[in-house]
Design brief:
326 residues, mainly alpha
Length: 326
């Protein structure tokens, strides 16, 4: 038994990247399925057509983003690194002037350590080709699973004993519902943070508002950590244009985060699964250290599914206790 357990752990560690790609495909399938269900409330057509509309809309959005904003974002991204490095150097000089034994190089090293401590990014994920390949595989998996979810559900159920199948179907249904609501809240939050940051920063004259809006929207997929990284970038770029612009950037950041944290998350995502912020952050640190960037991105969906499985098992144990009596 112990030898089998050790082999199982080693096998999971060796196949961790492939397992995470499958989990990512399940998350994307839940998002596609949720979009088809939502569309079905206003468009009474067969599910296959609704799913096709959702998938085409996703591809259309990415195409529009790259075609209409690609050149602007590319030019802004080229100067973002220089601005951040200049601001970090300025912070180091101000800290030394205030009497702190810290330099700009120390701050750069600290930033590098913070980013690297998020987790090891494997070679497949760190390279651009590997990232595109992984995203394509997850996207294809998500489309196939969303197209015929019952077929794959029955396939897994057939590998279980007859006595466990009904419990599995109930658990899978609740997991799907939780993932749909969780991802719906995440997508709404990404849209609000991205477009809200873009518009408000543009109104205040903050440089690179479009790029900061896109980065804020993308980083909103990572609760807690994404907000910290995007906030640091917004504040550094804001103060590069002056103190007044920097203070306005800080104001925009807090307004956008409050709208997401106190309106969108409680209204959409928290109804699905009540995950404590410290639990999510701890899971992100652990999954990031073990599995890299992909583990960091999928930490809270995985924790949400584990929570559902534990709740279902607890409910079944309680029902058995009631049937057996004292």
């Amino acid at each position: 038994v112990w030898i089998g357990l050790v082999v199982l752990v080693a096998l999971v560690a060796w196949l961790s990247q492939a397992i995470l790609l499958i989990v990512g495909g399940l998350v994307l399938a839940a998002m596609f399925d949720g979009g088809a269900r939502l569309l079905g409330r206003v468009l009474p057509i067969p599910r296959g057509f609704r799913l096709t509309i959702v998938i085409l809309a996703v591809f259309g959005f990415f195409y529009w983003t790259f075609v209409f904003t690609g050149s602007e974002l590319a030019s802004q991204a080229a100067s973002l690194q220089a601005i951040v490095e200049t601001q970090v150097t300025r912070l180091g000089d101000q800290a030394q002037a205030a009497g702190f034994a810290i330099s700009a190089d120390d701050l750069k090293g600290l930033g590098s350590q913070v980013l690297s401590s998020v987790g090891r990014v494997t070679a497949a994920v760190s390279s651009a080709v590997g990232t595109i390949t992984n995203m394509a595989m997850m996207l294809v998996l998500g489309i196939f699973i969303a197209a015929e979810p019952r077929m794959y559900e029955r396939g897994v159920a057939w590998m279980l004993p007859l006595s466990e199948r009904q419990h599995f179907y109930g658990t899978a249904e609740r997991m799907g519902s939780v993932l749909r609501r969780l991802m719906a809240g995440r997508l709404v939050g990404m849209a609000v943070e991205g477009f809200g940051t873009w518009i408000l920063l543009s109104l205040g004259g903050v440089p690179m508002a479009a790029l900061l809006g896109v980065l804020t929207g993308l980083l909103a997929f990572l609760p807690n950590i994404g907000a910290i990284i995007s906030g640091a970038l917004i504040i550094l770029v804001g103060f590069s244009a002056g103190v007044d612009v920097g203070l306005y950037a800080v104001f925009v950041y807090f307004v956008v985060q409050m709208v997401d944290g106190y309106l969108i998350v409680p209204m959409v995502a928290k109804r699905a699964v009540d995950l404590a912020p410290a639990l999510v952050l701890g899971a992100q640190i652990l999954f990031g250290a073990l599995f890299g960037l992909l583990g960091l991105a999928l930490a809270d969906p995985i924790i949400a599914m584990i929570k559902v499985a534990l709740e279902r098992q607890s409910e079944r144990n309680e029902a058995r206790t009631i049937r057996q009596g004292p």
